[in-house]
């Protein structure tokens, strides 16, 4: 093994790879909708099937990760997700697309659990926070995949061809992941794959994940609508709002581990909760586009580091094995992503969009109140002391 192919690099590549493939798929959704003449409701149901596949795969992936090893499972699933995406591209009717998306969602979701479990092992071996950087790599990969997808659409390249080319371009990256990795945390006697509800402090962490995911998912679908309908911005100005939110999130994630290592996980979550609270209040009170932009920037910072710390703490919890803990909180996170956009729509129909966005302040308050449950910094310190 070359010295520069470190475990941190290997995990970073897996996150980048998975994010890029998901961005590749997401960028061509309009083309698939048009190519198969899907209605909005049909597309919505297909997207729900993708999410359902992921949620059902979580407990299976968590159990397999604990029994077989997170690194081994991550590598295998990274290879499987490529043909799964290609099958999505070549599906020529709604039925086959539904099956393909369910499988793609399951493999993508399973890889999400496995790679986060591997990331937590590397984090423990290093004795310092690294999870925020790994999640930043996923975001960078998603942006890369979306960018390539936009170019392929501009070139009028059929999405099936693009999916094949994208996997061929990205597959060589996995060579960087093929490193020896042994972590003495396997549970060879655990054959359970059923979902386990989090409890105690892990339940608090799962609720924080739910609130953060609702906000993040709603920003993706509703921030541009808010800027357009409430502040009367044009479509370009409205789209810029979510771009600013995303840039703030990725930038903060790249710096997040330094912050966690300096002030600890609990104080970092408190910082994120306060920042998200201020951002949501500023966004709701905004009378100008620039005030709204500032609110979205603060929200991007506030939401950025929470989910990486959720995954890290779930993997380090003492109540269940790492894979099972990750599966339990990931279900809450995905549930929040699914619930957020429709929930905002239903409530906005009732009380108005500006008033509905005030709910994000309540979600941020839950994040702030649940910060006490994040004690990953203590676990890493104990790990360092044990190995000294």
TrEMBL record:
The keyword Membrane applies. It is found in: Membrane. The chain crosses the membrane at residues 42-61, 73-91, 97-119, 131-155, 161-181, 202-219, 239-256, 268-286, 292-311, 323-344, 356-374. Residues 7-379 form the Major facilitator superfamily (MFS) profile domain. It is a multi-pass membrane protein. InterPro entries: MFS, MFS_dom, MFS_trans_sf, MFS_Transporter. Keywords: Membrane, Transmembrane, Transmembrane helix. Signal peptide: none annotated. It comes from the Bacteria. PROSITE patterns: MFS (PS50850). Pfam families: MFS_1. This is MFS transporter. It comes from Bowmanella yangjiangensis.
